Amino acid sequence: MARNLPLPALLASVAKLTAPLTRLRRESPRVVRPAASAGVPADATAVADHTWRDSARLRDALDQ
Questions:
Q1: Which stretches of the chain drop beneath a pLDDT of 70?
Q2: Range of the structural domain that residue 26 is part of
């Protein structure tokens, strides 16, 4: 069932498949946000949270 698609068609099909996940992430970003592990120091959690927000902003900018 594999077929060779030109790059624009391949990208369009990937975007079509991932659209529901992108919409879910935008509507409820905390659902897909990784939870902090037990025993992790508070400052490490703060750094992870900051990194998460930065990467979420970058993904949103790339999606537009």
A1: 1-3, 5, 25, 27-53, 64
A2: 7-63
Instruction: Report the C-alpha gap between 13 and 7 in whole angstroms.
Output: 10
pTM (2 d.p.): 0.31
The crossing angle, in degrees rounded to 10, of helices 7-27 and 42-63 is 130
* Number of domains the chain contains: 1
Question: Residues 36, 45: contact at Cβ < 8 Å?
Answer: yes
Answer yes or no: is 45 within a domain: yes
DSSP state, residue 39: T
Residue 29 lies in a domain: yes
